[in-house]
Amino acid sequence: MFITAVSQETKTLSGNYNNIPLVQLLMDIERKTTYQFYYLDPWIENDSVTLAFDDLDLQNILDLALNKTSLNYYIIEDEQRIVLLENTIIYDELPAGFFGNKTNTDQIGTNEPKVKAPPPPPFYTTSQTKKTYPVAKIGKSDLNDLQERYVLTGKAINAKSGELIQDLTIRVKGTNLATVTDATGTYTLLLPVGYHILNIRAMGIASTEREIIMYNNGSLNLFLEEGLQQLDEVVVEADAFKNVEEAITGSEQIDSETSKNIPLVLGERDILQVAKALPGISSAGEGATGLNVRGGKTDQNLVLLDDAVIYTPQHFFGIFQALNPFTTKGVEIYKGAIPVEFGGRLSSVFDIRTKNGNVEKFSGEGSIGPVTGNLALEIPLKKDRSSLIIGGRGAYADWILKSLDEESLKNSNASFFDGIVKYHDKLDDNNEIKATAYYSRDAFSITSDSLYNYSNRLFSARWDHRINDKTTNALIIANSNYGFGIDYESSSNTDFDLDYSINETEVKYKIRKTANDKHTLDYGISAKYYGVNPGSLEPKDNSSAISPIYIDEEQAVEGALFIGDELKVNDKLTINMGVRLAGFAALGSATQRTYEENSPKNESTVQDTLSYGSAEAIKTYGGPEARISARYLLAPDFSVKASINNSYQFLHTLSNNTTVSPIDTWKLSDLNISPQTGYQASLGFYKNLKDNMFEISLEGYYKRMQNVLDFKTGANLFLNENVETQVLQGDGKAYGVELLLKKKSGNLNGWLGYTYSRSFYKFDSDFSEERINNGNYFPSNFDKPHDVSLVTNYKFSRRYSVSANFVYQTGRPITYPIGTFRYNNSDYVAFSDRNAFRIPDFYRLDLGVNIEGNHKKNKLAHSFVTISVYNVLGRNNPYSVFFVTDDGEVKALQSSIFAIPIPSITYNFKF
Q1: Burial 617-628 (b: 16+ CB within 10 A, else e)
Q2: What positions does the domain TonB-dependent receptor plug occupy (predicted)?
């Protein structure tokens, strides 16, 4: 249909159009009037119109015809021209209020609100280089709706498969504005009017930039190509805001590659040593086994390798990790708010994950160093679906003991090895299975007559199942075993074999459900069985005069129900909250003593001895564990977080050493030893700077603990069937502030960490034999108020870089003899209060040079050489201070682990 009538008196038109090209309407108007239209053909060639009007003026006709297009118009009456405009508008005068309030006398003294000036029209320039995508113009300007910011929405879509892409990061270049697509691939951004460049990143998606111009609210769907970038580079970009945006406090993530360029002792990669360079994590001393996290004891850390507990993840007195760096993907550390699925420890969780093997081609990686040899192989079983990864390490470390500054170790020897096998099979898009088997063993001889050994063995199997787009679940079965032994042979007839072991088996089922855009639920159930051999001593042969000793085995069950919810209250506030109902039961068969009330536990106060049958409950413990953490965005790159949680721990270590020993034993809670309990509160601020090049965080914490174990003076803990008479249970408290400044990109990268922390314990009682330091708080063995770590790496080129690692720590507490006295014609030493003094402060500088082979594609193997010097300054840092009597005089001596610079060169290869 066409325009049928024109009223010359009023310049109105009548017409009827049904789904015809817009250009036809414009041509009809030109024929029936004196107006001419000016536009570009591509603007209207795809637009059609359905419109009926009767005696309607030209302006209203154009309003109706262009309503659903991106076009505006401008009428030049004098020249009878109509100019069409794509998205934008023409300002023939400044909008009212552009310069703010009028200043004439009519407004002076009135209460009229100040008129807010509308934003200026968007002006922009773009590069003239060829673009992958054209500039996207969003919305069209409207004089009746002028705002400073407009909303951009859309979906991220895989251009090849059509699947929606979640967890895709969209960042506005040159600003701190950013967002992440949700489970439905949808994103929303509030942007200022004008020109912007969007940086688009996601795992497995080609990095993309899109130029846009915001004129009004509108949408832009992003059709993206699959990417070929290396996985680690994509992960870094995708997690650029993770430290700011996640709701959990006190979490750290280390990938295995991070340890590649950090100079460590004897050139060994070690993610646990890297962890000690982070704020809030330390150890009792150089060469000490175990980690102390935020003032907690070493037994308060849950260390998991592919969901199975590993009790001693270190070799060789803590100098090396017991994890193969070439099969290890990384570790997630939780030292503040612990996710609701984890439990059983008070201080932290180290969730270590191994890599999945290469499913496309056979490959491998290895290294040869001064102490260890290492090899890992990745074997595809079914292309693009299943694989096997096998890793093994062996040590030839005897020469180290001979070089230590300790005469008694000159004739010692030591060796260790570990092996790991992982099977991975992605059955289909909805099902994936993984299975890991691991074994490690250390053997060392400090003296010529004793051979010590300890070992870890674990197995885990995991089935991940995707029920639908919003729900996934996982079934996990894991078994762990830790044991040690002493093989003693002497010239006398006192040869013996000593053994200890702890074994645990766990089944866990967990579900993750995205209920809606605001709620993500995690819930499940776990059950665990413990079996402990507290120790046995057997004569080595019939000629030995040693009497056998067998301590009754211990067993217990532990279980938990847990549910958590990550609630997105709004764009700024996210709350992660949950509850874990934990329970524990010590089981027979066993015998347990009872003691007189209001009396110390010793042989003279035994009241009765109770016997329990097989699987009979001896004592049950448990209760709810609350977990809550919240994050509030002060700006897109600046957040404040707070958390509080409480925990139960049903296991304890028994040790009367200052530092952790591989022959320390684990003890289950029972009738006379209660579980450890505690709570922690933390508050932190997190900020990213310069397009996420820098991360800075400041976090403070306060922790209280109850029923922590310590030993009585002169306690005999091992092979003691009534160990409750040798230990004390008391209270602990810890508090501190952690500062971390990290530079993530550029030729110079690394981090600076500082921790101020205090850790105290108190053992008080009405009875003097159960008091320490008169029942007052005293510093723990690992109380180090000041801890500074600087880790840096500078890349000269893709092949050459240098690294440095500097550590400073306050000396740890120690108990000194402060005098002697004579009693009954015998000389005795009087000691200070426990931990009343400190050994000298610790500091160390390490340097390294990293040389990569050339990057030619067609090579048999790619190489990487690390040349490092550990303890460059030759600082004689004391490991321990002990006292001897020489000619009636008490003398203090100190021993050190590495008192001289230790150079090393390690050759790494990859094929």
Answers
A1: ebbebbeebebb
A2: 267-344
- The DSSP result for 124-165, as a single string, is -----S--SSPPEEES---TTS--SEEEEEEEEEETTT--B-
192 and 291 housed in the same domain:
no
DSSP letters of 843-911?
EEEEEEEEEEPP--SS-S-EEEEEEEEESTT-----SEEEEEEETTEEEEEEE-S--S-EEEEEEEEE-
The residue type of 99 is: F
Does residue 790 sit within a domain? yes
Q: How far apart are CA 277 and CA 21, in angstroms?
A: 69
**Cα dihedral sign for 39, 45, 49, 53?**
positive
**Spatial strand order in the sheet of 48-57:** 3-7, 12-21, 48-57
What's residue 233's pLDDT?
43
Poorest-pLDDT segment among 32-41, 824-833, 852-861: 852-861
**Residue 626 belongs to what domain range?**
251-482+489-522+539-910
- Buried b vs exposed e over 479-503: b needs ≥16 C-beta within 10 Å? bbbbbbbbbbbeeeeebbbbebbbb
Burial 412-426 (b: 16+ CB within 10 A, else e): bbbbbbbbbbbbbbb
What is the distance between the alpha carbons of residues 213 and 135, in angstroms, rounded to a whole number? Answer: 7
Element (H, E) at 22: helix 22-32
Residues 234 and 324 in one domain: no
Exposed / middle / buried, residue 854 (Cβ in 10 Å: 0-12, 13-18, 19+): exposed
Asked whether residue 191 falls in the same domain as residue 263, the answer is: no
Reported as type and span, the H/E element at residue 171 is: strand 169-172
Mark whether 259 and 241 lie in a shared domain: no
Sheet order of strands, 205-214 included: 136-138, 205-214, 194-202, 169-172, 178-180
Residues 287 and 166 in one domain: no
Residue pair 169/207 in contact by the 8 Å Cβ criterion:
no
Give the C-alpha distances (Å, rounded to integers) separating 792 from 277, 538, 547, 751. Answer: 11, 52, 57, 6
Distance CA 504, CA 349 (A): 17
- pLDDT per position as a tens digit, 497-525: 888 999 999 999 999 998 888 899 999 99
Please indicate, yes or no, whether residues 64 and 183 belong to a single structural domain of this protein. Answer: no
Are residues 198 and 257 part of one domain?
no
What is d(CA 402, CA 479) in angstroms, rounded to the nearest whole number? Answer: 37
Query: CA 26, 30, 36, 39: dihedral to nearest 10 degrees?
Result: 20
Residue 629 has pLDDT above 90, yes or no: yes
- Decide: 900 and 873 in contact? Cβ < 8 Å: no
- Alpha-carbon distance 283 to 281, whole Å? 7
Q: What is the CA radius of gyration of the chain?
A: 35
3-state class percentages of the chain: helix first, strand second, coil last, to nearest 5? 10, 55, 35
Q: Are residues 577 and 630 in the same domain?
A: yes
d(CA 637, CA 690): 10
Return mean pLDDT, the chain: 83
Number of Cα atoms under 13 Å in the Cβ half of residue 731: 10
**Residue 425 pLDDT greater than 50, yes or no:** yes
pLDDT of residue 888: 61
Beta bridge partners of 617: 587
